[in-house]
Amino acid sequence: MRRTLETALLSFGNYAKEHNIPIIANAGWQENSDKPCDTGSSIEELSKDFPQVDFTRVDQVWPNKSRDSEEAKKYWYTKESIMQRGEDVLKEIEAKVWPEMEDGKAVVAVSHSGFLRAGVTGWWFNNGDYRIFEFEEREVKEGRPTLKQITGVKGGMGESFETPAGLGGDLPEAAVGGLSVGLP
């Protein structure tokens, strides 16, 4: 979360402050793996380093991704967990944020390329790149929300691969003995 907070504040911090826009931390947007560099720091530590960020909505499980913890299962490095987490963050925006938005307003989600690619959008993101999406209209709000990309297929900076990566394509099916592996 530290890297995304730094990116968010460097990119949008002054604008957010000037326009009274909250920066809200959300554990759902974290990186995929359970390696130490992708696991995160405690909220106590982060809130001291980033006092301008609202941490009140961060899941109490954060930063636990332990295979020994059933409550941390939603953060495990498996296809099932990452795909479900991607669906959950999209549903949260679609249900709680999008309906309240005024025309011309946007939600900015600063996250990690691996999660955005494999769990949320199915598109590649080069370092520092961005893509703009809208929710496809749907009558019944069941299942995974569908996104329609507004930016060009190479991303907003034009540096990303132009072919879709596909959702969940390179994620491990299961965790075995502390290692994530693909199963046939």
From TrEMBL:
One cellular component term from this protein's GO annotations in UniProt: cytoplasm
Record SUPFAM superfamilies: Phosphoglycerate mutase-like
GO molecular function, a single term: phosphatase activity
InterPro entries to which the protein is assigned, alphabetical: His_PPase_superfam (IPR029033)
Name of the protein: Phosphoglycerate mutase
Source organism of this protein record: Neurospora crassa (strain ATCC 24698 / 74-OR23-1A / CBS 708.71 / DSM 1257 / FGSC 987)
Lineage, highest ranks first: Eukaryota, Fungi, Dikarya, Ascomycota, Pezizomycotina
